[in-house]
Amino acid sequence: MQYEDWHTHNSLCKHAVGTIEDYVKKAIELDLNVIGISDHFPYEYLSSEIPSLKDIPYEGYAMPTNNLETYILQLDNLKEKYVNQIHIRTAFEIDFFKHQNHILNKYLKNYLNKLDYILGSVHVLFGKAGVFAFDDGRFLNKYKEYDGNDEIYIEYYDSLQVMIKSLSFDFDLVSHLDLPKKFDKRVENKNLIMEKVIETLELIKKRDVAVEINTSGLRKEAKEQYPSAEIIKEMYYLDIPILLGSDAHKPEDIAYKFKETLDLIKNIGYNQLVHFEKRKRYFIEI
Ligand SMILES: [Zn+2]
Ligand SMILES: [Zn+2]
Questions:
Q1: In angstroms, rounded to a whole number, what is the distance separating the alpha carbons of residues 112 and 71?
Q2: How many A from CA of 191 to the centre of ligand 1?
């Protein structure tokens, strides 16, 4: 089958390498059916709204607000240029922050008619250790301010649950569902955290959004896709739709370990993956 990679970044966000076209060309070389370009939505415009964000180096997390236009324009042009070779999909990965939605939507509304889907993500915690991106290796010292890893998982799932319940936060797909394991900071009380995960999955089911199986965890210390096979099984029981994303931050990461990951999800029981176009959800057989 032809793979579809729904989660990629590019040099606009300042921590990925390669132009959008580099990703498109690599995806064509790999014979993909879809390349989803889903760069980080700006944080910049939030700094006036959420003062604590000044503590995080957001300039290196996402494109500046004044690049939004270029991003969409480039994608329009590339879609046309490569129309006979690949399906290019336009997306954003958007961070959820409490109390941001009105200002987020003010910026987002100009581009909504251009988007094929939106990834909803939590990378930043506003908790016990202040405001920090727990997936940024430069801030691993913050983990010491918690009593064990479970406190981080609880803060994370609490945020994710607020995101999923927040109807003014518009999204189609939940990203990297167990991201706090990135640096191999594992869950301590498995039952306790699994309860949180299941609560979260039930909200996902109720909101009727999909979850990505993100293979970037296989490139990190966790050495495992997000989420774990155990969580994917729970998702399968709940009939939550899924798709694959590499979270590529360089073109070579595109479709990273998709074959192994497809085997895993098929073994769990999945026989369909989600496909998005213009915010509509379709299914493809696997
Ligand atoms: Zn990134
Ligand atoms: Zn992410």
A1: 13
A2: 30
